[in-house]
Amino acid sequence: MRRAPVLELLERYRAAFPRETAVADRIEALVRAHEDCLLRSCVPGHVTASAWIVAPDHERFLLTHHRKLNRWLQLGGHVDGESHMHRAAMREAREESGMTDFRFVGVDGSFDDVAPLPLDLDVHLIPARKDEPEHEHHDVRFLLVAAPNQELAISDESNDLRWFHAADFARLGSDASVARLLNKAEERLRRSTRA
Q1: Residue span of the structural domain in which 122 resides
Q2: In whole angstroms, what is the distance from residue 41 CA to residue 43 CA?
């Protein structure tokens, strides 16, 4: 399994966001220690990819009400062996939203569909369920802007799928890492209006 693209992405992320080296180092430790880190079978955890999706007008963001976790979350999931995290995030965005047309937003707020840097990195605990032990998701999160005039389609993994405004966020009961995504996305999109 090719882990080099993940390690290179983490190095670029550290260079761009030096105050976030601790989480990048934590994900790198998993990647270096476990050859199968890109597969869901890897214990104690595995790399995942997700997407914070905003509407074309940048005024709304898309969340899914996750069926298993029973919470409003960004769209994403297992990378299933894909070593290019942006490709896995795009696949998950398409599968879980029903939309197909997105653009990655780079660090400076411009579109970067070639080598986008993540919006955020996060390590969080997934509780044990049935035959799956408690484990960690080492999540690589990207910012995507949806193209206009696309219909949403709820996937089997979701109870609901909905656009929200920032003013709606407090009532959703989402955790701090989702709030961090909202704040980081707003800041990155502000850069695009200043550019």
Answers
A1: 4-194
A2: 6
Number of separate domains in the chain: 1
* CA-closest candidate to residue 137, choices 187, 88, 171, 87: 88
Residue pLDDT tens, the chain, 195 long: 699 999 999 999 999 999 999 999 999 999 999 999 999 999 899 999 999 999 999 999 999 998 877 889 999 999 999 999 999 999 999 999 999 999 999 998 899 988 899 999 999 998 888 888 999 999 999 999 999 999 999 998 889 999 999 999 989 888 899 999 999 999 999 987 654
Radius of gyration of the chain, Cα coordinates, nearest whole angstrom: 16
- The domain spanning residue 169 has which CATH number? 3.90.79.10
